[in-house]
Amino acid sequence: MAAEKEEEQKVGGVAAVERAFAILHAFRAGDTSLNLSELAQRTGMYKSTILRTMTSLIREHCIVRLDDGTYQLGSMLLHWGGLYQSALRLDDHVPAILRRLVQETGEGASFFTREDNLRVCLFRVDSPKSVRDHIRTGDLLPLDKGAAGRVLHSFDRALTPPANFPQQPFIVTIGEREPDIGAIAAPVFGPMGSLRGALAISGPSARFSSDFIPGMTLALLKAASDLTRRLGGDPAVFETASANFDFASMAPSAPSASAT
Predict the structure, then answer these.
(1) Which of 25, 68, 104, 153 qualifies as a FRET site for 208, CA 20 to 30 Å off?
(2) pLDDT per residue over 167-204, tens digit each?
């Protein structure tokens, strides 16, 4: 008890808030409720500390205590999620991610969403190079041709993910939509695994060689991870791919297989 008070004093009174967050973070996908022992194991906190913190969380409807003595996340979290979603605007997040991608890769960066059987470019930042892929905001492009179109088709309705979820969260294509253009695209997710769009970099196919594709893909995966996190999605699939995929073995796709 004395140790806890000393810890709280050291961090300026924030420890109580951090303990509340630790309890909320203990709940994982698939959990319906947790008992006190499970909360103690996942948080590393004493049961007495959890019970004291629970008083405030229950009062503020962040946690609900069920009749069987277990605990469940409360309705206030859903309320906060709704406020977050209603305030969320792609304009506040996508352009900055695209500018960073262009700076890191030297190629043009775009964000596409699906519109019936087409894809529309909602945001675009051009490459500073004189020879580049010419895509403009508002352009409608095929859904069945090009890396971004293939991503929007392949990851549509891909929730958390199912058995038919693509093996890797990106697609590299060379010369499909246009013979001399290459591209790499990755999905961007929102809450509950919803597909928010496709993030893509594109440029002359000569610059999409096996020497450069791995580095560009890593930059794209980081950008997709960051944007997914900003939009309320789970970036784990991108982090896993970045950590485990053998990028050294990558090679550009032939036009007849899959391409931009």
Answers:
(1) 153
(2) 789 999 998 888 899 999 999 998 888 899 999 999 99
